[in-house]
Amino acid sequence: xxxxxxxxxxxxxxxxxxxxxxxxxxxxxxxxxxxxxxxxxxxxxxxxxxxxxxxxxxxxxxxxxxxxxxxxxxxxxxxxxxxxxxxxxxxxxxxxxxxxxxxxxxx
Length: 107
What we know:
Layout: E1 6-7, E2 14-18, H1 21-31, E3 35-37, H2 41-45, E4 55-59, H3 67-81, E5 85-89, H4 98-106
Parallel strand pairs: 2-3, 2-4, 4-5
Antiparallel strand pairs: 1-3
């Protein structure tokens, strides 16, 4: 469903939202926040505002065409305009997503 998400943990006031499931779980592990997965960057930009969630950490993917960046920024602006706290974070430059970073930390 457009604007929907996959809940990977119980909802809390402070959540991390990633694109795919693995990337979202890795961002959760790194940030210490419970996770939601948008499934795609296009869907991330359209995420429905979730009752009870007031602080979003948007962990977008770094892709070749910048879709993750655009989606993360668009969502952060929309959430901020709605009076919520929202920050969009890319993975480090040498990682395509948060799961890459998580895997590198385990080696």
